[in-house]
Write a structure and sequence with these properties.
There is one protein chain. By secondary structure, the protein is of the alpha/beta class. Helix content is 33%, strand content 16%. It has a five-stranded mixed beta sheet with strand order 3-2-1-4-5, covered by helices on one side. A hairpin with a 5-residue loop joins strand 1 and strand 2. The longest helix is centred in the N-terminal third of the chain and has 17 residues. The chain is rod-shaped and about 120 Å long.
Length: 134
């Protein structure tokens, strides 16, 4: 009598790899879902306007990449700039202040000046930007 060997069964497919992928996706979406927290109140972000003429009048503060300052074309230090803007705001409280900063200027140099200008009572502070060319 000749006995037949039982047919070889293939190895069962493991679902361990699939479980790992599912848990990886779960953790990924849990982390990424919290990156952009929503605000508890309604916000209307500022709009950038390009292609329109800038308003005339006011003063222009230029900030170079190395932090050098100029007010209406005359170089000055930060204290002198703020003093001259304060004097201008005393005579004309509606004076527009344009801030024209070099793209390489550090934000740590621009923001304190803008905060100082606003503390002086300037109502309109405009940041001059140039759109990227395509």
């Amino acid at each position: 009598m000749k006995l037949k060997r039982p047919p070889r069964r293939s190895a069962p497919e493991t679902i361990v790899a699939l479980i790992d992928v599912v848990f990886f996706l779960l953790v990924f979406f849990m982390l990424i879902g919290r990156l952009d927290a929503t605000s508890p109140f309604e916000l209307r972000p500022a709009r950038a306007v390009t292609g329109t003429d800038m308003p005339a009048g006011g003063v222009t503060l230029a900030i170079a990449a190395d932090g050098a300052l100029a007010l209406d074309g005359a170089e000055a230090d930060a204290a002198a700039v703020l003093d001259r803007i304060a004097a201008r705001l005393e005579t004309a409280p509606d004076t527009l202040v344009r801030v024209n900063a070099d793209r390489a200027a550090h934000l740590s140099e621009v923001l304190p000046l803008v905060a100082g200008i606003e503390a002086l009572g300037a109502r309109d502070v405009m940041l001059v930007v140039t759109p990227e060319r395509e």
